[in-house]
Design brief:
By secondary structure, this protein is mainly alpha-helical. About 70% of the residues lie in helices and about 0% in strands. It has 10 helices and no strands. α1 runs antiparallel to α3, α1 crosses α4 and α2 packs across α6. It starts with a helix and ends in a 10-residue tail after the last helix. Keywords: Membrane, Transmembrane, Transmembrane helix.
């Protein structure tokens, strides 16, 4: 592939992070009526009447769009892995970040698809079934946070230990990413907390964890773009070459 074309593709991928924050935020938060989410203490019938029937069309549209825009995170994470890989002698942190980013992208798509179903069948099926699917989607969405947390830990470690100049991003940006990932830890106890700041609709999730998460994805994107623009030859060794035995001094 032509080097300039490769660079343009990488730039598009890097901007997918900020684009994800804006587009997913509008579809999931605004159209999806997730600011805040419905009260976890609602009965099944109250959940249907006060949320899924009340905002049915907007939830269906917002969550349908979320299932589409979630892929932007995966693309951005793949590009971040490429740029981390260039700076590692052995790309273990890059691969951890890649796996975390891919799995996070899947969660960002999967749970909204379940909420679309809840809105679509509201008023047609047993409210208890809707409540069950609603909470299953939330538990998958929130309680699988470690796939994202391990992703940002890998990024943090690379940035803090990388000696190459100029740096991929400032250390404060990597620290923000780490803070965001660790801020999800209270979600471990989501099934036990139905009210207060650590509930799924509480202050912590939406004003600390989710906002810091959006900020780090939006902020890191421009630094990734700067790093790509500095590359004269935007190329990277293939996976097989990078992890081959020859790299470790073995026989090819």
């Amino acid at each position: 592939m032509d080097g300039k074309l490769s660079q343009r593709i990488q730039l598009i991928c890097a901007w997918c992070g900020p684009a994800f924050v804006v587009l997913y935020g509008l579809s999931w938060v605004v159209l999806g009526h997730n600011y805040p989410p419905p009260d976890p203490l609602f009965t099944a019938q109250e959940l249907v009447d006060n949320f899924y029937l009340k905002y049915q069309d907007r939830i269906m549209l917002g969550q349908s769009l979320s299932t589409a825009f979630g892929i932007l995170y995966l693309i951005w994470a793949c590009q971040l892995s490429v740029q981390m890989w260039r700076r590692e002698p052995t790309p273990i942190l890059s691969i951890i970040q890649l796996c975390g980013g891919v799995l996070t992208g899947w969660v960002l798509i999967f749970s909204p698809a379940l909420w679309v179903w809840c809105a679509e069948v509201a008023g047609k099926v047993d409210p208890e079934m809707i409540k069950a699917v609603h909470f299953m989607a939330w538990y998958v969405y929130d309680m699988t946070y470690w796939i994202t947390t391990i992703e940002v830990i890998a990024l943090f470690l690379l940035v803090m230990t990388d000696k190459e100049k100029p740096a991929l991003m400032p250390k404060w940006a990597a620290s923000l990413a780490l803070f965001s990932g660790l801020s999800f830890i209270p979600l471990t106890f989501l099934p036990y907390i139905k009210s207060g700041p650590f509930a799924l609709n509480g202050y912590w999730s939406f004003h600390v964890a989710f906002i810091s998460y959006g900020l780090f994805a939006a902020i890191i994107g421009p630094y990734m773009v700067q790093d790509i623009n500095r590359m004269k030859v935007p190329a990277i060794p293939g996976v097989a070459q990078a992890i081959s035995r020859r790299q470790y001094g073995g026989r090819g």
